[in-house]
UniProtKB/TrEMBL annotation:
Keyword Protein biosynthesis: no
PANTHER family found in the cross-reference section: D,D-DIPEPTIDE TRANSPORT ATP-BINDING PROTEIN DDPF-RELATED, TRANSPORT ATP-BINDING PROTEIN
ATP-binding among keywords: yes
Molecular-function annotations in GO: ATP binding
Protein name as annotated: ABC transporter ATP-binding protein
Source taxon at top rank: Bacteria
Record-annotated ABC transporter domain positions: 23-265
UniProt keyword list: ATP-binding, Nucleotide-binding, Transport
SMART domains, per database record: AAA
Recorded family membership: Belongs to the ABC transporter superfamily.
Pfam families cross-referenced by the UniProt entry: ABC_tran, oligo_HPY
Amino acid sequence: MTASPTVVPGSPDFTGTPPLLSARGVHVVFPGRSGAPPARAVDGVDLDIRPGEIVALVGESGCGKTTLARALLGLVEPTAGRVSFDGRPLDRSGRSLKAYRKRVQLVLQDPSGSLNPRHTVYDAVAEGLRIHGHRGDERAAVAGALSRAGLRPPERFFLRYPHELSGGQRQRVVIAGALVLEPELLVADEPVASLDASVRGEILALLLRLRTELGLSALVVTHDLGLAWNIADRVAVMYLGRIVETGAVEQVLTAPRHPYTRALLSVLPEAPGDPVVLTGEPPDPARIPDGCRFHARCQILLGGEADRAGVANACRTQDLEILDGGGDGAGGQVACHWARAGGV
């Protein structure tokens, strides 16, 4: 495991707090090409994010986590299910979506691709203000956002271009561009994946500080369980379009119950024992298997432990219900026949 989690000792208690963002039964289906069956990229997800909470959405590439994040942002319309914000269903009219996107901001993985190379830092940060018709002091708002993002004195960066900045500084500019609109929730898609190891900790510390100082909530989309351990209050592990385990981060990452979570954790540098090598590739989302969607790669089923627990047939034939998205950190939830039979 990585260094002990930064957030756990002082984690706020979210029990009973109404969610800021809520997803219920969200499906996103993309039509197949040339008569192929449709791809179920998100195949039933419940997820809540509470005010001031940081939730890590974890899974390998292709599991549907970025598509889910785009649906939560209103960039992709769910095929089924609903997304609510601050207690109200998301209205997809142009004016309502514009107002919503002021309150929920996206921070992308690659700052170089997020910033227009022809725009100065000032223009990059001010762009959101101009789109949303900001009526106050633009210069003061840009300076404040840059300062909160750790670029001080902010005026020193106004006339710089992205190519004149380090990778960490570019990511801070992207974060400042989100902060300038004073959002309530950040959706950060692999926010440190493209950064050097020496800078990753600084950006994670910045996100934690913003939560403390501004009360920001965050959904952090990542394949990196070490990142989740260091920043999140709660973790949701996603596989083939559905959340398969969720709970308080220290609970899930120190005592994982789902075989898929165990496999992901086993490859971390400090993980005890040998890495779990999963067989094959994740199934095609257009051809999700019957039963548990992980069963074709499951080390517990292949190793005979599911047979000994009497659940092997259920693993192969019985689908599991969508996990409740409430996730107040008490107890945790798992979509696994073997774990529920007491195999953990």
